[in-house]
Design brief:
Number of strands: 17
Shape: globular
Low-confidence stretches: none
CATH class of the largest domain: Mainly Beta
Order of helices and strands: EEEEEHEEEHEEHEEEEEEE
InterPro entries: DUF4438_C, DUF4438_N, TM_1086_sf, TM_1086_SG_dom
Protein name: DUF4438 domain-containing protein
CATH topology of the largest domain: tm1086 (SG structure) fold
Radius of gyration: 18 Å
């Protein structure tokens, strides 16, 4: 049974931003986890060729942001864009092309068809149809929803089980020790980087997460994201992988927070098809 929500009581706001340019400092190169210098593309701009369902790792990139990286010039309006935009919300470009939000990082990230992305450039305005903050799962009071549109909840496999737990399908379970950058931050802002999550790492750095894809739903163990992001034994946070390959130590592909609460309130089903592609 689909999980009941208070979706009928939510409001929709139209937010705006623009495609933000890639940025760099004058030093250029940075060190990877083994101290080797690298200079690679990643954050900002329009990133072609990487979409939901594609591998999150294996690219010559650092802090890879798929699709559009969207920001507002006014700092406070930009924070509203970060806090109010939810995964699954519709985005529209100036040409009328449509896509959807896949998560937050330093920017709001949106996936569009490849042919539409090829027509967008830095500085183009983007509209976000923001709806979802304030969403509650009315039959699951122990669970807190974060950054999740009601349309996404409606389309995610699973729902309320006869035993009262929320069934959620995930592509991977993430151990607590994988959590890197992003811990301690507001769970409505940016995401949590996962260390040890890509091929080519030495054995002492790998955590078995090399197969993650952009858009995968994951369950982060012992993670409480109700009031920020931190460790709490016996809690689980459901997230969606919104960023890709990172080279900096303590960083990696990152999930944006969706649903968090006590582990016993969930029934997790491992499924390789648990990906944001369900909302296309």
């Amino acid at each position: 049974m689909r999980a009941a929500t208070n979706a009928a009581r939510l409001v929709t706001q139209i937010l705006t931003g623009e495609v933000w340019p890639p940025l760099a400092d004058r030093n250029g190169a940075r060190p990877d986890a083994d101290g080797q210098a690298f200079l690679l593309p990643g954050m900002g701009g329009v990133t072609l060729g990487v979409h939901c369902g594609d591998p999150a790792t294996g690219y010559a990139a650092d802090h890879l942001e798929p699709g559009l990286s969207i920001r507002h010039r006014d700092p406070r309006a930009n924070m509203a864009l970060q806090f109010l935009t939810c995964v699954g919300n519709t985005v529209r470009t100036a040409s009328g092309a449509e896509g959807f939000v896949i998560g937050q990082h330093a920017y709001v990230l949106a996936d569009l068809p490849e042919e539409a992305l090829a027509e967008v450039t830095v500085g183009d305005p983007v509209t976000v149809v923001a709806r979802g903050q304030g969403l509650r799962l009315t039959d699951h009071p122990a669970l807190t929803v974060k950054n999740c549109s009601p349309e996404l909840v409606e389309r995610m496999p699973g729902g309320t089980r006869a035993d009262g737990r929320l069934e959620v399908h995930v592509a991977a379970t993430v151990p607590a020790e994988a959590v890197g950058a992003g811990a301690g931050m507001a769970s409505e802002f940016a995401n949590t980087d996962l260390m040890g999550a890509y091929a080519g790492l030495s054995e002492d750095l790998s955590l078995g997460l090399e197969g993650l894809r952009i858009g995968d739903f994951v369950a982060v163990e012992d993670a409480d994201h109700r009031f920020g992001r931190g460790y709490r034994s016996g809690y689980v946070t459901i997230g969606v992988i919104s960023t890709g390959h990172c080279m900096l130590h303590g960083h990696g592909p990152g999930p944006s927070s969706l649903i968090t609460g006590p582990a016993e309130a969930f029934h997790l089903v491992r499924s390789p098809d648990a990906n944001l592609e369900v909302i296309r």
